[in-house]
Amino acid sequence: MLAVIKREIALGLRQKGEVLTPLVFFMVIASLFPLGVGAESSLLLRMAPGVLWVSALLAAMLSLQRMFATDYADGSLEQMVLSPTPLGLLVLAKALAHFLLSGVPLVLMAPVLGLQFGLDGRALGILMLSLLLGTPTLSLIGSIGAALTLGVRGAGVLLSLLILPLYIPVLIFGAGAVEADAAGLGFGGHLSLLSALLVLSLFFSPIATAAALRISLE
Q1: CB 65 within 8 A of CB 155
Q2: Nearest-CA neighbor of 188 among 177, 199, 179?
Q3: Transmembrane region positions (predicted)?
């Protein structure tokens, strides 16, 4: 697993455009909303959690299609399937590498973008924590869609249709954590549910992704 993670990170750093594209997309989308709706602080504060979470979700999706595409094209994926190492562990390693390359930069950039919406330090901290719990879940769930659409024409559109409905709970609880704290209701419940989704994804996603990869290779 460690070897796969190191390999994926090394490949990602060589192709810096693929790593920077989701981050730039996140910055552009999140920055357009304050310009479009005006400078009314109360409106921006209400919009901030949802806008930042939707922007992060869409940015994380940009690189999902390439999670297995390169390995599929050069034959490495078939070697992974034939490897004595369980395919589920290799899939988990690739999803973790995707989170490190795509999710972590989004988490680190979110507070900077949150300042545009007038979020205070407490809200920014909760936003970062919710993204830190939610973005690995997005990578794990996205790996299932990436495996199912491997080698399919129009895979990008099909991938979006497959995984967007599965992303909705993560989006609701992630954005809801910041909104609940702002309303004085407490954010612990939302973060607990995000943690539960992450645990479930860690267990079930590698199994489902491994099965999908075997089907795609047949």
Answers
A1: yes
A2: 177
A3: 20-37, 43-64, 85-112, 124-150, 157-178, 190-213
41-62 as b/e, with b when 16 or more CB fall inside 10 Å?
eeebbeebbbbbbbbbbbbbbb
C-alpha 164/C-alpha 142 separation (Å) is 9
% helix, strand, coil for the chain, step of 5: 85, 0, 15
Residue 68, token pair as written in the block: 């297995």
Gap between the Cα atoms of 86 and 209, Å rounded: 12
Tens of pLDDT along the chain (218 residues)? 788 888 888 877 787 777 788 888 888 888 888 777 776 777 778 888 888 999 899 888 888 877 887 777 777 778 887 888 888 888 898 889 889 888 888 999 988 888 888 888 888 889 899 999 999 999 999 988 888 888 777 667 788 888 888 999 999 998 888 888 887 788 888 899 999 999 999 999 999 988 888 887 77
